[in-house]
Protein: DUF2827 domain-containing protein
Organism: Burkholderia ubonensis
Amino acid sequence: MSDSNARQAPGEGKRLVVGVSLYVRGAGQSLWENGIFQNCLLLILLLRQSPLVAEAVMVNGGEQVADPQMMLGEWNVPLLSMDEAMQRCDVLIEMSAQFNADYLRAFRERGGKVVTMRVGNDYVIDIERAMFNKPSGFLFSGAPYDSVWTIPEFERSCLHYYQTGLRAPVTIVPHIWHPMLFDKARATLGPGLAFGYQPGKPRWRVTMFEPNICMVKTSIIPMLVTEEAYRAQPDFLEIVRVCNTLHLKDHTTFVHFAKRLDIVDHGLTTFESRYAVYEFMAAFGDAVVSHTWENAQNYLYYELLYGDYPLIHNSPFL
């Protein structure tokens, strides 16, 4: 005997149209700005392999036209407006752009299902926003969700934060990556440049790529690690390049810290802007030192190891 109160899945008996949110800012926006844009595209390509999915599309959570650097056209990924997604999609996966609560209520009222996929350490980020008077996020907007997805690196720090705060079950899903996007990017390198470790050099050019915008990923411990190695064996080091630090290099606390290190005092360290990994390592790097706190799955790691570069890290997932 069937249960007349059983909740029917959207589009049950047919293949689903799934939309993944992408915040489109407009001109100058690149696929390589951060890992979440790549993650959105890879998720779309993965969903296309499912026998349950008829079509996987991007949903524009912004109001601009996608820059060609986003590569959506190359992979034949449709970019729908929110109005189009309301009519066409059976499932929405909120990822790069967050939908407002009223929109999601309306989507669910017409029978759609909504997943929010969290790929940042929201627990720490929200604490910092509140304590240091940073712009508010919208994680707890009152939007209704059928499920929360997150990846293994955030299970310990964020699972219960999501589960209780968002009032939805949490599922741990794999962190997906594939080199096909990265291969397209590194193919654009100029003459004489190649991404990939070149062994046999007497001294290393050490690089750090931590964003330095949140405590989960900073250059402080990588600098300390490199300092200890330099004190133990000075001859191994040619130069240290600390990327993503232009906003820190004149801060009194950071300056006082850096000046206590021989790698700075001896003129071996430069503080750099933000760069794409494949470009910077091809021209300026031999090895990378990294440290994260509860943020141990990163495309940076996969890309470096794909290029056979030495990676000094603290990730339990590698």
